[in-house]
Amino acid sequence: MLGDLGGFFHLIEKILGTTGSILYLIFALVVVKQVNTMSKNVKDKFNNILITVSYLHLLGAIILMFLALTIL
Questions:
Q1: Alpha-carbon distance 56 to 64, whole Å?
Q2: Assuming Cys at both sites, which of 47, 50, 51, 61 could form a disulfide with 28, CB separation 3.0 to 4.6 Å?
């Protein structure tokens, strides 16, 4: 009985972890799109830094999704 319940909770953990990482990846893609749109409209000396940070954020989200798919 307890083993079946543990397997059920592990399945729920996999589903929630994978779904959460997919949503976070979508969020990171939206951030990159917004930063690129902002940098086209607002001219500033920090635009390149913001674009770089947004792409690093996207890379982190991709790594998180890969880890969620492989570890979970």
A1: 12
A2: 61
The pTM assigned to this predicted structure is 0.85
Cβ contact 25:60 at 8 Å: no
- Residue 39 C-beta-side C-alpha neighbours within 13 Å: 16
Residue 42 per-residue DSSP state: S
Is there a contact between 36 and 57 (Cβ–Cβ < 8 Å)? no
- Tens of pLDDT, residue by residue over 2-41, are 568 888 898 999 999 999 999 999 999 999 999 999 999 9
